[in-house]
Amino acid sequence: MTVAPEAETRPLPPGYVRLTIDGIEVVAPKGELLIRTAERMGITIPRFCDHPLLDPAGACRQCLVEVEMGGRPMPKPQASCTMTVADGMVVKTQRTSPVADKAQQGVMELLLINHPLDCPVCDKGGECPLQNQALKHGRAESRFHDTKRTFAKPVPISSQVLLDRERCVLCQRCTRFSKQVAGDPFIELLERGALQQIGIGEQQPFQSYFSGNTIQICPVGALTSAAYRFRSRPFDLVSTPGQCEHCASGCEIRNDWRRGKVMRRLAGDDPEVNEEWICDKGRFAFRYATANDRITRPLIRENGELRPASWTEALQAAANGLAEARDAGGVGVLPGGRLTVEDAYAYAKFARIALRTNDIDYRARPHSDEELRFLESTVVGTSPGNGVTYRDLESAPAVLCVAFEPEEESPIVFLRLRKAARTRGAKVFHVAPWVSPGVEKTTVIVHDGGPVRTGGLVPCVPGGEAAALRELPSDVDEALRQPGAVLLVGERAAEVPGLYSEILRTAQRTGVSVAWIPRRAGERGAIEVGVLPTLLPGGRPVADAEARAELERHWGLAPAALPARAGRDVTGILAAAAAGDLSALVVGGVDPNDLPDPALAEKALRRAGFVVSLELRPSAVTEHADVVLPIAPSTEKAGSYLNWEGRHREFRTTIDGTGALPDCRVLDTLAVEMDVDLFTQTPAAALAELERIGPHLGAGLPAPDEPPAAAPSPGAGQAVLATWRQLLDNGSMQSDEPNLAGTARRTVAVLSPRTAQRIGLGAGQRIEISTAKGAIVLATELAEMPDDVVWLPADSGASKVHRTLGVGHGAVVDIAATTAMSPAAGNGHGGTTHLDGGRA
């Protein structure tokens, strides 16, 4: 924007117009809304329905201004949120026009006719735009004295969103967000005229992963959170910026807290990442940090039982046990994928210096050697400066998702893909077995004129993704050859032999940019700081003697002090511990149920001579731990994450003075007990040292080059298993959140009608999916997908795939129709397991 009083003689840049607002001449781009131009000039026009990330609606009429075109005033005030700028336009806002001011006051008066004016009890009181604008732009007295309209309240439009209809000003922000941004048009305007109201359709609950955003953008107190309603007021709270710890999207959030407890979370404003949105998991799943079973004191096992101990005693016991194990069979380190960059760095340094081992791997999930070579050759060292970003997704002409379910695994990536498809017509393709809800919402965009298909599904049998990628349809292959096209790959690719190699070959063939998107918040940072068996901090290869020597100088170690042999991966560490080849394990928040073989993990924990667990709450690891060291949740420490882009996402402590210690401080003190200095006493110290070390500047490691594996071939009564985790599932960080759990998707098995017919699946019957290790019985849902394929959620309700079946994505399983049900089958999630393999 350029304010130019004498600009009449200046030529206009191409694509711009000149207009006057409140007597000030301004140059603005064609197509810009009047309300945006005024905002950039510092002129605030009151509004309710307007939102910069939603399409214009003109629903509330609060933003009326006086407009003159060609020397002729328009007959009545116009809505500035729907009118675009034009050359020679003269606009007068409420600041300079009595007509606009009177019109705005009249609209406010009408909005308040039926509004209950219950500010003292309304959750929005103190931060309500209606409250603020009524005082600034409304009349002091109302001319209406009739009885106000009333409704029964609140109406639960979902288990976590409650509606007070009489507060609603019908701005349609909530309905537009749900339809345009999230693609979940469950909430709509009902009735007409004076009876018009917000509601949901019959038998169609507001089951959206993004429903909490409607609460935040509602300009009045009509939509409230079931978890926060009547719990606090804005002036009672302290607001602290933060970063979401649930996935690799890297969302900016705001923690509102009082008396040492977080009361609610809101989305932060970061145009480069999450804009103004967050998913419901990031918004509502934070009470795990204050759960009643949280571990607050160190524990030591004595006579087979864990007992509370002092920090001094526990650290000495842990140091003695680990030192003895290190000098015997060695120690394996499993930090998990939820760590901050600083904590992950402390684990990497602790393993190399205190334990003298490269047996460290953060990948508490299915993994492979091919994936490791992909990470160390293609992912490490990428950042917004040299890799794919959110803006690249938004501007891409085509995006191909491979082994990646964006709505479930990275919700903000899903929103960007949907935005690109809706606003720019970007073609989004998915290599997947079936059209899941997330696939449908990024490939079929529902506009007012009807649905528009912008992408599509490349159907494939689970395990056959590499072959499908090699034989892409011509339209998909052509789309990927356009400049700016992006290929997104998820962590599920580790379960498909040859897929990472084929992805790189596809990139070389078409020129498409590749981005890897993991599911957990700490995975991207763990790669950079060396929490892998073949990488040291900064992406330095373990096998590179010069890189080891450089790191030894940074760490002040003697030459050749660092172990030179590459370590074992997660499965190798667990197998070695189960076989007695490793004497101890250090575990940092790993759930055995997330691992590809939970039975192997439990055997390793039983057979390991000494187990140290750093965790927040009791888990399956606690049962086998000899020493338990409590650590701080993200709200009680400072630190940073790297999101999938490689973007640094720093946050400071929200709740201070609790006495809880971050992992880096615990490991630093433990190392001191082992006569080693890590210098990671604080996250700031750890990050400063990591920045001094810097990235590896030498030659990179070779990329994987493996042939694509053939798709599995099931026999009679068998099917190929497709599986991935849903956003809302059995995860321990979602515990103590019943309202959030109420919006989780049903736990069902999905298969094609022909597959159902082959096994004789009749009405009212359920399907049994089994292996030699166990069976899962679920209700079914039919969908268009390849025959002899069955999809299960990996860890939802009773469907605990790795725990119960002992296999993963792409495995061949037995399927059969059954009417067998256990007493737990009526749990509302659609099924139950035949084993006792529940989550601890």
TrEMBL record:
InterPro entries assigned to the protein according to its UniProt record, in alphabetical order: 2Fe-2S_ferredoxin-like_sf, 2Fe-2S_ferredoxin-type, Asp_de-COase-like_dom_sf, MoPterin_dinucl-bd_dom, Mopterin_OxRdtase, Mopterin_OxRdtase_4Fe-4S_dom, NADH_UbQ_OxRdtase_75kDa_su_CS, NADH_UbQ_OxRdtase_ferredoxin
Cofactor: [2Fe-2S] cluster; [4Fe-4S] cluster
Stretches the record annotates as Disordered: 697-716
GO terms for MF: 2 iron, 2 sulfur cluster binding; 4 iron, 4 sulfur cluster binding; metal ion binding; molybdopterin cofactor binding; NADH dehydrogenase (ubiquinone) activity; NADH dehydrogenase activity; quinone binding
Cited SMART domains: Molybdop_Fe4S4 (SM00926), NADH-G_4Fe-4S_3 (SM00929)
PROSITE patterns for the chain: 2FE2S_FER_2 (PS51085), 4FE4S_HC3 (PS51839), 4FE4S_MOW_BIS_MGD (PS51669), COMPLEX1_75K_1 (PS00641), COMPLEX1_75K_2 (PS00642), COMPLEX1_75K_3 (PS00643)
Start and end residues of each 4Fe-4S Mo/W bis-MGD-type domain: 237-293
SUPFAM superfamilies per the UniProt record, alphabetical: 2Fe-2S ferredoxin-like, 4Fe-4S ferredoxins, ADC-like, Formate dehydrogenase/DMSO reductase, domains 1-3
Function description: NDH-1 shuttles electrons from NADH, via FMN and iron-sulfur (Fe-S) centers, to quinones in the respiratory chain. Couples the redox reaction to proton translocation (for every two electrons transferred, four hydrogen ions are translocated across the cytoplasmic membrane), and thus conserves the redox energy in a proton gradient.
Name of the protein: NADH-quinone oxidoreductase
Organism: Saccharopolyspora elongata
Origin organism lineage: Bacteria, Bacillati, Actinomycetota, Actinomycetes, Pseudonocardiales
